[in-house]
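step: validate -> pass
step: tokenize input -> pass
step: predict -> running
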Amino acid sequence: MEGITIEMARPEDAFDLRNVMKRAFDKESRKWLTGEQEEKDYNIEPPGYGSVDRMMYSIHHLHTYKVMRDEDIVGGVILTLTGRSFGRIDRIFIDPSQQGKGIGRKVMNFIEDEHNGVRVWELETSRRQIGNLHFYEKSGYNKVFETEEECCYEKRIHKNMSGGGNGLVREYSDQAHSEWYGANLSNISVSNSNIEKGHYHNCNLSGSVYQNINFRKTMFADLTLEDSTISFVSMGGLRFWHTDLGEDRKSISFTECDLHTSIFEQCDLRDVAIKDSQIEGMTINGIKVRELLDNYEGIKSS
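step: predict -> pass
step: emit ->
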């Protein structure tokens, strides 16, 4: 296809990529969703699809590509690769003005050519998006799971895999109730697996990456999280208890976070700075902060 190129996205592309993605998903939202929807359809309106910061995260931590027509960004695709053999298409989006011109097909072919070691690709899409269902099935994807809201697809590319020793690939292996002691599992990759109720004790997990993980009702205790990053996380009901800032007293940063109705009790907040934040209803020892600030401004201006 003349004039179309696909290349790795750079941080300076985040704003334009966000704009293209937002236009694409907003079009889908207007087409498939109605005001009568009781629950959000996260395949049509994925979390953070209007956020530049979320796009920046994808560029830095996932495999994010931009689709160019001449000098203009007209689409993008975001991938999560697990090890060498498993890949997930998190998002693929084409500017509405460029849809129906075969660009999506070119992107799908690019993905498989660029990552030709991957032998299983997967993705999810809304059941409402009939066009998507036909597109993915025509691209060789098979439906493996379906609910009232979404369809899960998988494409297997048959390759000769070397077995045994390092690089062993296991699928659908039942390891329930197994125990590992003194094992070397460095650089292990785990995807689409059930590891609920696992017990990890005295293990070195430094440098590990956890993405798209269900941690509901999980206990984290006696951990060192210094210099770690927690981003785009749903923290409803999460409790921080008996935590500190480590030996070097490195500060914690909360940026663009929704802390509505949160409680800080018996905490050391010396030298804490709160900037450009919504503080309506916030109190310190029962005193409303907004009233304190209003009184302060009144005294300062008098």
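step: describe -> The longest helix spans residues 14-32.
step: cleanup -> pass
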